[in-house]
Amino acid sequence: MLIDFDGFILIGAFIMLLFLLLFFKLHLKKRSMYLLFFSIFYLYLCVVFNYTQFPIIIDENMKKEIGQNIWRDANFIPFNTDHFAITTSILNILLTIPFGFGFPYIKKTNFKQVVLLGIVLGVLLETLQLLSALYAGFTFRYVDINDVIFNCMGVILGYGISKGFTLVYRAFIHKFDIKLNSFLRYIYETNDRSI
């Protein structure tokens, strides 16, 4: 059996987004621009989960052929040369840069919180991979502490890029006295409160 990020899972993710948007709008009285930025961030998270968690393969024959490789191939030693791959590390950084860049548009945050978020995101992704592997009895994805480290680095890097963008954006707005529409104003106000 192959479980992929389509069909019922995709529909469920969309329905959850609708419920969240309704909750934010009706209960928390969030503005339309917040809902837009939240939707973009939510879709990004769906892409991350699709890339890191799916497909999940449940096949007794493959389980017998591959064997219980879950703990055998797991790596809990940082930068262990037996498990270290430059390409994978770079991809893990690139995967989470948008998280660090986009999160300040959803919630005011500081550097310490960003580091914690990076660790939590990395641990969450690896834990979900481990749980799906334990359920299936084998895995093509390996639990690796290096993934957590480089996911966290990507979040921190994204946050740094966001802060740099904030400074340039605000300077540009002031220098050219640009009239702000609701989209540009949301970016400006969010950046203004996050510095």
TrEMBL record:
It comes from the Bacteria. Pfam families: VanZ (PF04892). Residues 41-163 form the VanZ-like domain. The keyword Transmembrane helix applies. The keyword Disulfide bond does not apply. The chain crosses the membrane at residues 6-26, 33-52, 84-103, 115-136, 148-169. Keywords: Membrane, Transmembrane, Transmembrane helix. This is VanZ family protein.
